[in-house]
Amino acid sequence: MSQNNKGSGEKVTTSQGYPLPNPFETQRIGNHGPLLLQDFNLIDSLAHFDRERIPERVVHAKGSGAYGFFEVTDDISDVCGSGFLDTIGKKTKALVRFSTVGGEQGSADAARDPRGFAIKLYTEEGNLDWVYNNTPVFFIRDPIKFPHFIHTQKRNPQTHLKDPNMFWDYLVQNQEAIHQFMILFSDRGTPATYRHMNGYSGHTYKWSNAKGEWRYIQVHLISDQGIKTLNNEEAGSLSGSNPDHAQEDLFNSIEKGDSPSWTAYIQSMTEEEAQNLPFSVFDLTKVWPHDQFPLRRFGKLVLNENPENYFAEIEQAAFSPSHTVPYQEASADPVLQSRLFSYPDTHRHRLGTNYAQIPVNCPYAKTFNPILRDGAMTINGNYGSKPNYYSGTVPTPVEYTPQPKVNYQSNQEYWQGTAQPFHWKVEGDIDYVQARDLYNKVLSKTPGQQENLAHNISVHVCGAKPEIQDEVFKLFNKISKKLSEDIQKEVFKLSPRSNYQQTTSSNASGKCPYGHSKL
Ligand code: NDP
Predict the structure, then answer these.
(1) Helix (H) or strand (E) holding 261
(2) Is there an atom of ligand 1 within 6 Å of 182 CB?
(3) Residue 263 backbone phi and psi in degrees, to 5
(4) Which of the four pLDDT bands, split at 50, 70 and 90, describes residue 403?
(5) Alpha carbon nearest to ligand 1 atom 14, residue
(6) What is the pLDDT of residues 304-360, one digit of tens each?
(7) What backbone torsions phi and psi does residue 40 show, to the nearest 5 degrees?
(8) Could you tell me the distance, in angstroms and rounded to a whole number, from the CA of residue 196 to the centre of ligand 1?
(9) Mean pLDDT of 450-475
(10) By alpha-carbon position, which residue is closest to atom 34 of ligand 1?
(11) Measured from the CB, is residue 266 less than 6 Å from ligand 1?
């Protein structure tokens, strides 16, 4: 575009299509006088700019995304009757958005944080969203703790700083989170890139086959690039030198044709097997041990296309575990149940009630629901003159989908009972068992991983008050005496107690990366 709009490129117009002789011209009185209210293009440009931002997601604000496809590699029709899985080799268009959780939109990709791994599959039976993370477990199992927990990972209400006191105080008071904290503080808490990490459903889902037989399911997406992680110091320095390193890596890899992929597996469990577990199948803080529930391969997810426009296609992408297809359902996992509400609620807030009409969110499958009418940004024709209710007298060209031969939901769990107060407390030893397995059986296999865990915790917990540090040492002692001692030793080195007595607002040794909070 030339500045006088006379070049051979696209001609600039106002938002209403008026061809602008020069897009930089404004209307004013004389050579130096005030500007005119009648200058629609100036006012429209400034007013539009003022509205460019939409609310950022309260969690998962910083993200990166790409398109690709899901390909069926193995028959699992005995487990799932969903159409997109019915033929080996069948491909379904996919959109994936990776993210960090706690940081704001400009925060560093290398932060120690779980990573979101949200997938939209545009299937012939509607959109299926798998809204996963790179960790197989999570911090909570009582959904009401979510806002409470996230507040402790965000900024202190007074100092507006990240606060190690809030962070560790939460853990010692909510010890069901220990398993996820240990994964987070292992080197898997700082993946090298989005390509080098796995995705896990974490939650238990319910899948059914065409005969109506159902199972509990967990999905694992294992990176074909392998796992690569950063150590604490590499992550810290990358956060400063290139806060967008994971966005850059994903975009550039796809741009040069190096398409990342993940192999998809399920773990499945019958209702009877679930009743015999030592923990609840709906407990989001637990994994299903591989030896009892082996992985079964069924597909491949490939990312091979960058979005044309980040804001339109990634910032506006709206995922929800309640966007599902026949034969795949949520289980009674309480955190999953609350996500079914909370995700679409966020989209209605950020994008409006018609978020499903935004092209990136719009199903490729035909939709017809003339009850979903009107509202801000109705752009899909609004079902024209068709009745806005299911009329008995006005013929409504409703084609009801034929019922499947088997009502696959009819033989599922039977729930009955009175309304009950529910708080899933930590009781007994079971909430520490898998965290111990991680330390003793898994991290021990790779030299340096147990030491890195202790170090990664120490350089963070050294910023907390001594009384909170003491509780952290006691908690890790329940996992391993050695782990607790290693943490304690390094914390005392980084943040000697005598220094704490002298100064509560900064760390006199200067070695602890966090200053003590005054609060
Ligand atoms: P396994 O020995 O069969 O599984 C251990 C799994 O841990 C590996 O397959 C791998 O899963 C994952 N892993 C390997 N290295 C690390 C690491 N440095 N940090 C975190 N995870 C790692 O035993 P179990 O199935 O009985 O699980 C034992 C423990 O392993 C669990 O308590 C849990 O903490 C952890 N784990 C288990 C997973 C599961 O689904 N069973 C998944 C991930 C972790 P992957 O192939 O998925 O990378």
Answers:
(1) strand 261-269
(2) no
(3) -90, 130
(4) low
(5) 442
(6) 999 999 999 999 999 999 999 999 999 999 999 999 999 999 999 999 999 999 999
(7) -55, -40
(8) 16
(9) 97
(10) 438
(11) no
The hierarchical CATH code for the domain 1-52 is 4.10.91.20
Cα 442 to ligand 1 centroid, rounded to whole Å: 6
Residues pairing with 162 in the sheet? 155
Q: Is 329 in the pocket of ligand 1 (CB under 6 A)?
A: no
* Domain range summary for the chain, segments of one domain joined by +: 1-52, 63-138+191-363
Q: What are the residues whose beta carbons fall under 8 Å from the beta carbon of 87, sequence distance 6 or more?
A: 72
pLDDT band at 394 (very low <50, low <70, confident <90, very high): low
Ligand 1, atom nearest to 135 Cα? 43
Closest CA to ligand 1's atom 6: 442
- Is 343 flagged in the annotation as binding? yes
Q: What is the pLDDT of residue 3?
A: 57
User: From the CB of 186, is ligand 1 less than 6 Å away?
Assistant: yes
Q: What is the mean pLDDT of residues 81-86?
A: 97
Reported as a pLDDT band with limits 50, 70 and 90, residue 69 is: very high
How far is the centre of ligand 1, averaged over its atoms, from the C-alpha of 440 (Å)? 11
Cα torsion 319, 323, 324, 330 to 10°: value is: 90
Distance 224 CA to ligand 1 centre (A): 16
Query: Can you say whether the dihedral through the CA atoms of 199, 204, 205, 208 is positive or negative?
Result: positive
Architecture per CATH, domain 63-138+191-363, reads as Beta Barrel (2.40)
- Model confidence at 4, in pLDDT bands (50, 70, 90)? low
- The reported pTM is 0.95
Regarding the beta carbon of 290 and ligand 1, being less than 6 Å apart is answered: yes
Contacts 24+ apart (CB under 8 A), 475-479: 475/171, 475/172, 475/175, 475/178, 478/178, 478/432, 479/178, 479/182, 479/432, 479/435, 479/436, 479/439
Residue with CA closest to ligand 1 atom 29: 438
Contact by Cβ (8 Å): 195, 250: yes
Reported as a single tens digit per residue, the pLDDT across 237-277 is: 999 999 999 999 999 999 999 999 999 999 999 999 999 99
> What CA–CA distance (Å, rounded) separates 316 from 296?
33
Q: Give distance in angstroms: CA of 90 to centre of ligand 1.
A: 30
Q: Annotated catalytic sites, by residue? A: 60, 133
pLDDT tens for 109-148 read: 999 999 999 999 999 999 999 999 999 999 999 999 999 9
Q: Is the CB of 41 under 6 A from ligand 1?
A: no
